[in-house]
Structure to design on (109 residues):
């Protein structure tokens, strides 16, 4: 995603590698071989991450049906978490939901 190159300078889209119409397995193999993490809304990659572990790492964007701009905003707002995940050699899966862990947006006050 070129929109996020300021935060994730080496990011790319599957179409950049001719994999836009590919099944999950070639995408998984390419990401693993080239050192990419997979950022996806697809539950299949979450399941694959549990079964196989890294590489590649998987960022599962669990936002439901939403616009690309919302996914972008989430990846921007949670960039510190995403980058820390990428740097942690033990981590395989990061789940990004509408609210960061421990935050509900409710005022308790």
């Amino acid at each position: 995603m070129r929109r996020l190159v300021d935060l994730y300078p080496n990011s790319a889209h599957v179409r950049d590698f001719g994999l836009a119409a590919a099944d999950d397995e070639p995408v998984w193999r390419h990401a693993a071989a080239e050192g990419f993490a997979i950022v996806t809304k697809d539950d299949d990659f979450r399941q694959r991450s549990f079964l196989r572990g890294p590489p590649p790492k998987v960022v599962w964007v669990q936002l439901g049906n939403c616009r690309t701009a919302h996914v972008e905003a989430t990846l921007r707002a949670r960039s510190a978490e995403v980058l820390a995940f990428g740097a942690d050699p033990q981590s395989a899966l990061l789940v990004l939901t509408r609210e960061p862990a421990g935050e509900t947006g409710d005022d308790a006050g």
About this structure: DSSP finds four helices and three strands in the chain.
